[in-house]
């Protein structure tokens, strides 16, 4: 899945986003692009679970 995260603007943000996603699926493959505000995730977790954990971490996401 590809998500847009408007307030992911730096490497620290990307690390926080990655950690949040890994809290749901520790085996997820995650590619972050802070400059484009995009994250690409290969996961077995439900999209709703990913969106919820990102919201809770302060990084609300929308489908790209």
Q: Could you tell me the number of beta strands?
A: 4
**Residues in helices, as a percent range:** 25-40%
- In whole angstroms, the N-to-C terminal distance is 8 Å
The backbone outline, from C-alpha atoms, is: globular
Mean pLDDT: 97
Give the amount of beta strand, in percent: 15-25%
What Rg is obtained from the alpha carbons, in whole angstroms? Answer: 10 Å
How many strands, which pairing sense, and closed or not: the largest β-sheet?
Answer: 4 strands, antiparallel
Q: Regions with pLDDT < 50 over 5+ consecutive residues?
A: none
Structural category is alpha+beta
Secondary structure tally, helices: 2
Return the string of H and E elements: EHEEHE
Q: How would you describe what is shown here?
A:
With 64 residues, the chain is α+β, with helices and mostly antiparallel strands. It has helices at 11-24, 47-56; strands at residues 2-4, 29-33, 38-42, 62-63. Strands 2-3-1-4 form a 4-stranded antiparallel sheet, with helices on one face. The longest helix has 14 residues, at 11-24. The model has no long low-confidence stretch (mean pLDDT 97).
SSE layout:
Blueprint: E1 2-4, H1 11-24, E2 29-33, E3 38-42, H2 47-56, E4 62-63
Question: Which properties best describe this structure?
Answer:
64 residues, alpha+beta, 2 helices, 4 strands, globular
Give a nutshell description of this structure.
With 64 residues, the protein is α+β, with helices and mostly antiparallel strands. Helix content is 38%, strand content 23%.
């Amino acid at each position: 899945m590809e998500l847009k995260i408007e307030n992911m603007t730096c490497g620290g943000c990307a690390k926080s986003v990655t950690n949040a996603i890994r809290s749901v699926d520790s085996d997820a493959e995650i590619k972050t692009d802070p400059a484009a505000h995009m994250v690409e995730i290969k996961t077995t977790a439900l999209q709703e679970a990913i969106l919820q954990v990102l919201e809770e971490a302060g990084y609300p996401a929308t489908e790209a």
